[in-house]
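Team,

Forwarding the record for the chain on the shared tracking sheet. I've put the sequence and predicted structure together so nobody has to dig through attachments.
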Amino acid sequence: MTLSDEAKAYLAQTAADTEQPTVATLTARARAWFDQQYASLGTSSAMLDGQVAVDFSGQTRATLSVISDNASGQFSTDEATAATRTLQSRFNDAMSPHVVIARHNGGYASLYAAASDYLDQAGSDEKATMSWQDQKQAVLDGLAAARASFGKAPVTGNDADPVRALLDKAPTQVASGTDSSPATLAGNARVMLDAQAGSARDSGKDLVFTGGRQTGQQVDFTDFDNRTLAVVALNSDASFSAQEASAAKAELNQRARSSLVNAFGGDGIRASSMALLQHYSNMSPEERSVLGFNENYVNRIAANYRTAASIQNSLGSGSGAGLAAYL
């Protein structure tokens, strides 16, 4: 069969269209894309406040690798950093299901094997970069270590290990101010507890919630504010186990006892009562509900304050005007 000149030209063009663009071509395209993004967004950097500020979703892995490697020097430090973070984010998304399975069954070797396969899907240009080579070697070392020690994630101690970076990734926390909804706080707490449970499993342990357990990794509520603890303890949407809710309530009770001891340290009944009223006023509704601090509580403290103020006033020691802010 003889092909016409038109058919030969079509096939040649098709082959050219499917051929991987060169590094120079990807660099030029990426540089033009950045410049267009800045003009469109009204910014001059790919990183703002420590966060990636451009949308890389339409960029290929090969393009991101070229920007991250920046062998041509055509990209700024922020642009290279943004591309590097996006590459890691895509790796994290691809590996997340394997992390869940590894933490469930202890098979971290399978996680590292999946990471190795993911790296192998890179193009030849990416494989030629030092970053890819360092990651590949780190993953192979991690795979060997995981096979030698079943049930926990290997501590490779290698900054180039993308699997370890994923496992150690801190959870994204939602701001837990007083204007946050209980649902938001509950979701944030769920993420934080799950992260601690995952970290425990990476060490071959369970996350435990009672101090009497001699084994396991004890839950750490340091980063939980009092209102978040109260939301967990109330467990209105059943997002938490009975152990989690009980541990959160115990932690909140302990914090409340410490605060009340400090309040009772005031100079006299009047000062202590004022401190207790201030402590009550600073509590969220969720905290008051868990701790059993209701209107009867504040009324009793207010009565004590009035009595002390009346006695002091009768002795000429001042007025009780300060109570007005809390009543």
